[in-house]
Specification:
single chain, about 425 residues, nine-stranded antiparallel beta sheet, about 10% helix
Length: about 425
Amino acid sequence: MFHWRWPHYRDALLARADAAAADCEPARGFLIAPPSLIGLARASFVEWRYFAVLSQAFHGIVGLALVNPDRRFARIAEGGLLLIVAGVIDRPGLPRTAAEGAGADARPLFGDDTAELCWMHLFAPASCAFDPPGESSSSTTAGLRAGDAHCRVGLQQVDAVRAVLHIEAGAGLQLHLSHVGLPETALPNAFDTNLDGWLGRALGAHWQVQCASPVAHSDGELVLQPSLLSGLAQAPGGDRPSYASAGLRARLQAGHARSVWQGADGYAEHSFGIRPLPLQGWDFLFVPKAETGEALVLQTYPGSQALRYLEVCWQQDGRARQHRFGAEALRLDWIEKTFDPVLGVRRPLRRRIEAEADGLRLTLENRVLHRIPLLRRDRFAVRHFFISEEIGVADWRLSDDSGRVLAEVQGQPCGGELAHRRLRVPRCAR
């Protein structure tokens, strides 16, 4: 479940086109577009790998998004492997509970001195090797090698829960990440084909979410050099997608910045499929606590019931347990929200979740303390789309129908992501 899927999709799509040319039946492995729409289906392929680190030294993500690998429709759409490092260095201390310090008179924890980074690099597909031979040649090892004149990245996964990632950018960024998921916490895959309306049905649109590491231990190091600043905007929302906040710029102007974390809480996800209208977005939240083996994961994709669920992991009677609350058992409310002038949309400040099924009841309150915009304006297809990485805290409680508390977590650092289309595209930075 941890190998790259694009090589398989590429071969299957080519087989479909070749079968159509030869007037024979193609191989069937997944829903796929008719021959006349193969080009659009290839352009609609997306594969996303996401590693989150929740430590005070660095709270953020490392993402690898393979989009439109053939680089079709280049005038309006980007294509290639997008590498993302986004987060906060030396994150301030967080509240002890989601309710602490909340309210209209609450002071922001993340001020002008916050050292925030959003760095992106787009690799051409030709510079990428997925599950390359050599170190990653066995069927139990997956990996990635990509490199160009500006950056190199290497990813090796010995199984679904263990990964090592290394990034070196000539402009002045180095990152090493080791991710080890906790045993017996892998979540069942989620899959849906009821996506993107009539266009989705025509293309065989589908999406699969694989989460073998809802809770993990993360070790790593991030080193930033002053030279990195020359390619970064001063704030999000402008023509350059990568930026460094004023707080981070001040640090780097005084010398390099080095962040090291050991045994931090982590989360990882692998998702992929054919999505002609990915701008419908998603809203998801993850709350890993490796110390106790507990985790909570919320996934929601607009228009999908199969991809709207809440998964909880806990320890009971010396055993790892987990349960999935489906869409029919789940209630999600944004009980406090605000208009974000950079994103151009309203986003949540507090989420409240209630779920009840199969003799279990779960309540959660999530407070979003900070967001990191991921914006790209260069192509029309993504200009009206935003991703907002979230840093927050969460309180949650799981009980059974007798009222016995099975698990309870308070003030746990958490992460999440809100993504959606947007009509307005504010210009906020240079």
